[in-house]
Amino acid sequence: MDNNYNKEIKNQSHDEIDLKKLFLILWGKKYLIITLTLMSAFISVFIALNKPNIYKSTALVTVIESSTGGGISSNLSSQYGGLASLAGISLPSSGGADKTSLAIETIKSRSFFRYLIKENDILPMLMAAESYNPISKQLILDSEAYDSDLKLWLKDENGINYAPSFLESYDIYRSLLSITKDQETGYLNMSIINLSPVFAEYLLSLIIAEVNVLTREKDLNESDRAMKYLISLAAETSIAGVKNSINKLIESQLETQMLANINEDYLLQSLDPPFIPELKFAPVRSQIAIFGTITGCFLSIFLVLFYSMFFSSNQFIKFIKD
Q1: Are residues 162 and 31 in the same domain?
Q2: Are residues 30 and 111 in the same domain?
Q3: Which DSSP letter does residue 64 get?
Q4: Are 204 and 59 spatial neighbours (Cβ–Cβ below 8 Å)?
Q5: Residue 149: enclosing H or E segment and its boundaries?
Q6: Peptide bond into 52 cis (omega under 30)
Q7: Helices in 29-50 by DSSP H: which ranges?
Q8: Residues 13-50 pLDDT 10s
Q9: Which domain holds residue 36?
Q10: How many folded domains does the chain comprise?
């Protein structure tokens, strides 16, 4: 019992001596640790101050249902769904869940991004942005990569074009875009981050507008093809019951065309439209400076101990072996 007690006291005493020796080693190199920590602090502050401001424009939108609860469209699926499916016609639905998923996946899709950059001259702002001038409120582009006057992508000294590939551009687009669904309300929270608050608002507004245009054109084209088919089918049919069903389907297509032509907000409607942010979203410079300083302090302590362990006098090596 006494032996175990003495052994425990000896271990505790040894631990205290070890901690004391470690403290003495660090204290002996205190000026080096302070110097390295200050250098880390200066570097962190320099990096934080030179990071450009990032702005975030947000919008709250809702998905518009194409039909009302008691109208023709709400009953078409149950009454004439079989005939419509045989004809290859999609009927309006009274639920909005599928349309919400459609809106989200459409905005995130490569095909929509291809349509977006084809119809709008936004690729240079996405891929050649260098800085933002808050006075002129202009996004400054990299003059070595893109000629703003000629609207042409330039080539480097080796003849390689600076024009980005489609997938590179799409990856940047996805990194700037955020779109989530509120599970309680079903509304969509959308946001765009960018060096320019003006371009962030413009791009977000453009996405909402173009997804409405694209969806409207798609539904109108499908409805036109369905109308032509149904009219030709009705002319060839003499059975009253079938003709009545076809007429109901024609009515549904007329309703689709009416909604598409009178509603500018066809799929998405802004409850809280995109805005030009006044305050930056990132970076948080104080956090960068504090994190860099603390990291530098710990690294300097580690380097002092590492050097003392492997490159210093044999006294420390003897201390490790004891």
Answers
A1: no
A2: no
A3: P
A4: yes
A5: none
A6: no
A7: 30-50
A8: 444 446 777 777 777 777 888 888 888 888 888 887 87
A9: 24-51+283-301
A10: 2
